Amino acid sequence: MATLREIRARIKGIKTTQQVTRAMKMVAAAKLRRSQDAVLQARPYAFKMRQLLESLSQKIDTSQFPLLSQRKEVKSVLVIAVTADRGLCGAFNSNLFKIAHQVIDVEYAHLLKAGMVKMICVGKRSVEHFVKGGYQVVGEYGGIFSKLEFASAKAIAEQATKMYLNGEVDRVVVIYNEFKSLLASKLKTDVFLPIVPSEKLSEPLVGGDYIYEPSLEVLVNELVPRHLATQIWRILLESFAAEQAARMMAMDSATENAKELLRTLSITYNRARQAAITKEIIEIVSGANALQSE
Question: How far apart are CA 130 and CA 115, in angstroms?
């Protein structure tokens, strides 16, 4: 059985940890509010941008636009895996790794054996995991969530686009956590390139015929890179908001667990203290009886 000093030291340590987890929960809650607002502002623009591009693509020959036309055979794939920069956010990172391995090791197993699966890792945890796992990482974007900027999203989109246009890959897939609510996020695997029409967003825009200046083709060429950068930006915001929600819930659970552990240790401490006092009283009484008997 642990001594009173050991129990007191453990209670002190748990109280310190509880203070840390409570503080981390408050920090995550503050970041969540800001990131949630950013997501809600970015979503309408990103979805309307995609809807506009899909509406315009119905009026042109998509075979003349490499980013809008699907290739007959997929011989190589680029996977963009978006995780957090830090841990202490529950199963946020580990769940994404499971989905990523399912996509890479199962769905694209034949390409992986041939060395035709490349990766762009976003977030320190993603970089550490896949570099250590021996995967072919061609882009590392660790630490970008400490200061999330649109320039980072643009750089990721430009690298993926360049590799696709150069024929290095035939498909680009992005895996990320989509923010749903404080209690839930949704793991998504989206085809980033080529840009394929979405049933949900492919309704034509409201209105009649338009006159395009200088031309419809030039307009599409201008919109495509903006659309890709905007989609990556939305994905980064979604992932960051989902991360903060997961961290807030994890720290709240840790704080509650510490509270329960403190209650248990307090009971153990009081019992040990009572036993020590009882033992001392017995020793005193036994000593007094021994003196009287002499």
Answer: 14
List 24, 89, 160, 195, catalytic entry: 89
pLDDT at position 60 is 81
Active site (annotated) includes residue 89: yes
Averaged confidence pLDDT in the chain: 89
Note whether 145 and 123 are within 8 A (CB): yes
For the cut 80, the answer to whether the pLDDT of residue 210 exceeds it is no
Find the helix or strand (DSSP H, E) in which 161 lies: helix 150-165
Predicted confidence band of residue 286 (pLDDT cuts 50, 70, 90):
confident
Please give the residue range of the domain that contains residue 204: 22-250
Amino acid (one-letter) located at 72: K
Residues 119 and 263 reside in one and the same domain? no
Query: What is the number of residues in the chain?
Result: 294
Q: Indicate if 10 and 36 belong to the same structural domain.
A: no
72 and 200 inside one domain? yes
Same domain (yes/no): 42, 108: yes
The tokens of 196 are what?
Answer: 């394929």
